[in-house]
Amino acid sequence: MEKGVLLCVDDEIIVLTALKDQLRRAFGNEFVIDIAESAEEALELLDELSAAGHKLLVIVSDWLMPGMKGDEFLIEAHKRFPSVVKIMLSGQAETAAVDRARKEAALHDFLAKPWNAAELVESINQGLKDKL
Amino acid sequence: MSSGDTATVGGSGAEQGFERHEVTSATSRLSARIAALEAELEERRHSESIHRALYEIAALSAADSPEDEHYVRLHQIVGRLMDARNFIIASYDADAGMIRQDYLVDEDPNEVCETFPYGEGISSLVIRSRKPLLLDDPQFQALVAAGEIVSPKGSADFNSWMGAPLIAQDRVYGLIIVQSYSPDVTYNLGDLELLNYVASHVATIVARWHANRALKLANDRLAASAETLRLLGDIGKDLTGNLDALSICTSLETHFAELMPTDAFGVALLSPSGDALDYIYYIEDGVVDQTNSYPLDHPTSLAVLTFREDRELTLFNSSQMEAAPTAANIVESRPMLSAVFRPLIANGRRIGVVTVQSHDENAYQERELEVFRSATAYAAIALSNADAYASAENARAQAATALAERNQAEAHLVHSEKMAALGQLIAGVAHEINTPIGAIKSSGRNISEALESALLGLPLLLDELDSEHRRRFSDLITRASQPRAVLSTREERVIVRDVTARLEALDVPQARHRAGLLVQLQAHEDLDGMLPLLRHDAADRILDTAYGIATITTNADNINTAVDRVAKIIFALKSFSRFGGLQVWTESDLKDGLETVLTIYQNQIKHGTELVREYEDLPAVRCLPDEINQVWTNLVHNALQAMDHKGTLTVGLRREGERALVYVGDTGCGIAPEHRERIFDAFFTTKKAGEGTGLGLDIVRKIVEKHGGTISVESEVGRGSRFTVSLPIAGAG
To answer: Which domains does chain A have, with CATH numbers?
Structure first.
């Protein structure tokens, strides 16, 4: 059994770099931390991981990205992996989009950039705990 | 008579009776001859004195006009020819029907020169009949009885009266009269003939005097009208060269005062509302008043009457003057007895009334009226011009104010437009800063935590490694600290997958996890070198510690990148929001400006726009960078709006000779052909109210033109638009 996967999606590599190390330190022993630069790439990755037998546990996604926006992506991901904990981490998100994600993607939490690492970790832990 | 006759006379004593008879007849013959001689002599003397008289009369013709002395001379001349103690020369004016006594000498001291109408007296009879007339009392009575003449006294007061008409060129100029009150002097027909003869010569002289006088009068009139014309010319020049209504009035007053009695003078103009006459100037006996106004339905104002009836009003006596207006603020010293009012008419339009008034009766004769009329006409034109000028001035001033206001409004709108755009942008850009700041914060924390764990774990780990593993570990750290190639997550994932497969083939546990770490540490290219570490008991700690140390480097790099991002955004915001500051022509890289604008819009572009940059290398362009950046801002803004942020935004730079071409294209809705001509006009907009002022492209055009450049647009409805700005590289001018 492969480790569970924690996926970060953001179009900014600096955000992904920071997130990856941050989450690896918090969850590196339990989960694989994966990153994707766009929603489209993330969806591809989800299929790959799923095929490889990884269990997707958490998605942390930005909202404003070229191409597919965060809410749309999370709704799509929710269709395929309804049990995944979905968190939106964004510097700017339209309220309507966040509301839609809450309703249609069972959004677990919304965090604003610049984010607090402890809060993010706490939110992920809370989300994982809720799923059990 | 011979000398023999004398001898005969001396020798004829014997025949005395015969001789006596002969002597007597000879004596009477002699005396007859003497008488004849005397008569002849007398006649000759008389004739001579007549000739002399005529000669002297002719001499008088040298004079241009009759003076008293000429009449005196005539009197003397006639006096030598006959008894002329009572002598009259009178002239007859047929046009006026008057007889005027020019010269009168009379024994009766009560008699003086008189002027009386041509009519029924004896002077008139002489003129009427054109014949000399000799009268005594009975003849006078007979004429009265025959109705030829009328005598108020009923009888003649003379003993004898002669009158001879002065006729020259068939015209009666007057008559000469001699008369006697004394019974001693009674004129006969011979005297009458003589008087008539003299009169015919005098008539020639009088005719000449008359002609001279007429000529002189004509000359004088000519001179006077020339002078009037000159004065009117001066007035016209003075008035029409003036554009100030009040100084036109005072100038007119000054001229009138030189030419005619001007005790009061006024100019009233139709009020702007058109329902009253306002005296813009009124002066009476030196006191000025400018406050009077009469409604056009004023019952007694003569100015109003003149205006209403559109005719000249002349008043020459006190009763006519009673209704004349007086200025309320002027106390009349003496009543005005003459006044003229005349409408001011310019371009067929009544604009007011002018009046001039005098304390004297009949102050204004034809000449004064002529001057007044002409000057009034000039004044009307001048006042109308002044009014037009004042209106034009006023309009000009208003236009200037309006222009200034418009400029201000436009500047304000430009500013508003910019501030609105900036306001829209700022929210997005602020968020834009949150992203790198979040990264910085996290990376900073990552570094401190990695440092902490590395510092704690490293000594213990190194203790556990032998020299061979230590060397390999050191090698791993070195690789991890190398500057890393920028890989996309996709590319990285391909590598990780590959490394995972190789590790699985080597039977390394946790292949995928470790492959990920090795790729991060840039150690996957030397897997064989890494294998001893991977097979070590403390493999996990070795990799985690190495990764922790690498984290410090990558996160430090990440912080630098993020800080650069923040700096770039701050710089863009700073350049973008600078407004109205000192504009300086600068050699500027257009690419930098475009990138600044794209940074500002990055946030909006991300909403679904693909950005394509087509940059050619260009020399720096001389421009006003802030203004030029405003052009790119507007074009990028419009392009994004035109395609609702979904499509391709193409930004390009190209060189064409000495010009730099900058183009901004979109794949939006395009511009309808009927709008293409108008999009650069101020206030033209197809946007909904509140979305744009319609000034954007007008401002763009103005800025481009200021740079000596041009802007053009290609567009296809449904396919998109491309705006191209062409700027001279060397700058404007």
So the answer is: 4-131 (3.40.50.2300)
